[in-house]
Design a protein that fits this description.
Elements lengths: L1 H16 L4 E4 L5 E3 L8 E5 L5 H4 L4 H9 L3 E4 L2 H12 L8 H12 L4 H12 L3 H5 L20 H15 L7 E5 L5 H10 L2 E6 L2 H13 L6 E5 L9 E7 L10 H11 E14 L12 H7 L9 H10 L2 E8 L1 H17 L1 H7 L2 H19 L3 E10 L13 H4 L8
Parallel strand pairs: 1-3, 5-6, 5-8, 6-7, 8-9
Antiparallel strand pairs: 1-2, 3-4, 9-11, 10-11
């Protein structure tokens, strides 16, 4: 009776304040509407009374956890489900997981050892290669694509993203390129085959290492591409060009100066580097935990931390690097994530055959939720081009025109 009264009060408040097109159906058949409608666009079915405390403090973290644990089933289009989840989380009685978030941030401050980083990376990326192949493009590029015109298919946009990066760093035939966090090898394969570079790609994911190595062999590029199962902190030597795409999110805010300092040491004196990564829009870099942040840390990206772009730029300078160019790709990631989420939905049956129900639900809400977060400026993403600080201004291009005028390698579409 206590819970029923509380739920009824909550539904009445939401209905009066935000008019959410959703219906709550309890295990006993009782129904509560969160808005005025002829038919609900989303139906939340409560399977167990253990979900009630989470519903009465409906943060995105709590709603996400209840869903992935199977305490709730949700009917409706994925876009509507995400919209309703945000609306409920922002309702007047919404709870907060801020205390948990603060504890998690303290714990992460002392993490990011080589062993813990390897464990976190393998948790996220070593689900299975077949799992990722079902919703990524055929090159398995797991980072924000670049929709130059806005109408490209995913594979074209991912190829354009790689070419955009390699053109930005002015990659030349014969130069040595290091790709930190090389994924399944798409960038180094393109850099070697179309730009003529000598490449080293490093990853901490064994699945990525094995498939990327197979792809290098299949492309007959063993003389130009080396894939290593190696921490970037252990890479020896120097490189003419360095790329890091979707990796610095795993470094940790406290460790960013060291990360960029290591990039500085690995870079040749006349070299160029590009960091492509997700950032917070909170100017205090995490003083406020983003909605769903604890859920992502718990279920998707253990020990992941996002800085504000200003902190990333400051840490680059502290690491001995000069920033040359900054490009915001937030709109591009909305499109990328929307396509990934659509692919995930269309291959749901095959994905369920590869992973358990909890992991399926985690990734389903994660991809769609991230698309919503980028659309609404909760998070952003930037490509930052840099070189060693203290060098002559004469080597800086007069304009950004070279990034576009020569944006295709010779003989390539």
């Amino acid at each position: 009776m206590f819970w029923e009264k509380k739920l009824a009060q909550w539904a009445q408040q939401v209905r009066a304040q935000t008019n959410v097109p959703a219906r709550l159906v309890l295990w006993n058949g009782q129904q509560l509407d969160f808005g005025q409608f002829a038919a609900p666009r989303v139906t939340i079915k409560v399977r167990s009374a253990t979900a009630l405390p989470m519903l009465l403090a409906p943060s995105l973290d709590h709603l996400g956890e209840a869903y992935v644990k199977g305490l709730l089933d949700i009917d409706g289009s994925l876009a509507d489900i995400i919209h309703v989840s945000y609306a409920l989380a922002r309702s007047s009685v919404a709870g907060t997981s801020g205390a948990t978030g603060r504890l998690a941030r303290v714990a992460r401050h002392w993490s990011h050892s080589k062993a813990s980083d390897r464990k976190a990376i393998q948790y996220h990326y070593d689900v299975s290669n077949d799992f990722y192949q079902l919703w990524l493009d055929e090159s398995m590029v797991y980072s924000c694509a670049y929709f130059e015109n806005g109408d490209e298919d995913l594979a074209t946009a991912q190829r354009k993203k790689i070419d955009h990066i390699l053109t930005k760093i002015r990659l030349q035939p014969g130069q040595r390129l290091l790709d930190i966090g090389c994924g399944w090898g798409a960038l180094v394969l393109r850099a070697a085959s179309c730009f003529g570079a000598q490449c080293v790609g490093v990853t901490l994911s064994r699945n990525q290492f094995e498939l990327a190595t197979e792809r290098v062999k299949a492309a007959d590029l063993q003389d130009r591409v080396e894939i290593r199962l190696q921490d970037y902190r252990d890479v020896p030597g120097q490189f003419d060009r360095i790329t890091s795409v979707g990796m610095f999110e795993h470094v940790g805010r406290e460790h960013l100066p060291l990360y960029f300092s290591r990039m500085h040491d690995l870079l040749a004196d006349d070299g160029m580097a590009l960091n492509h990564g997700i950032t917070l829009t909170d100017a205090d870099s995490g003083a406020v935990v983003p909605e769903g942040g604890d859920f992502i840390d718990r279920y998707v990206f253990p020990d992941g931390e996002l800085p504000h772009i200003s902190l990333a730029l400051e840490c680059m300078q502290r690491g001995g690097l000069e920033v040359l160019d900054v490009e915001n790709l937030r709109r591009h990631y909305v499109r990328t994530l929307s396509i990934w989420s659509g692919n995930f939905e269309s291959h749901a049956q095959q994905i369920r055959a590869l992973v358990d129900e909890q992991r399926f639900r985690i990734w389903r809400v994660y991809l769609a939720g991230c698309a919503h977060a980028f659309e609404n400026d909760d998070v952003s993403i930037f490509q930052v081009l840099c070189r060693k600080a203290g060098r002559s201004a004469q080597q800086i291009p007069w304009s950004r025109r070279y990034m576009y005028d020569s944006g295709r390698p010779p003989g390539q579409p």
